[in-house]
Description:
Layout: E1 6-12, E2 18-22, E3 28-34, E4 40-44, E5 51-55, E6 59-67
Antiparallel strand pairs: 1-6, 2-5, 3-4, 3-6
Amino acid sequence: GIRRGLVARVWNQAKTATAARLTSASPLQSAERLTHVETLLEPLPVKEGALETTLDARRLETFGFKLLPP
C-alpha cells in the first residue's frame, strides 16, 4: 500500500550511462534501489529532497521512495 511508499521504474535507453535526478512535488524522505520484484537491494542517499544517481547504459532500474509529509 501507499504506506510503503512509491515505486518508480526508470529506463535508460541510451548507449552510455547517464546522470539522473529524481524528484517529486513533495520532497523525498528516503530512497532505495529495488529489484524488479521490489525486493530491497540497498538504501540510497537523498540530497535536498531528491535522489541523484547514475543509470547504466540500456538498463531498467527500480527505485522505492517515501515522501516527506506536506
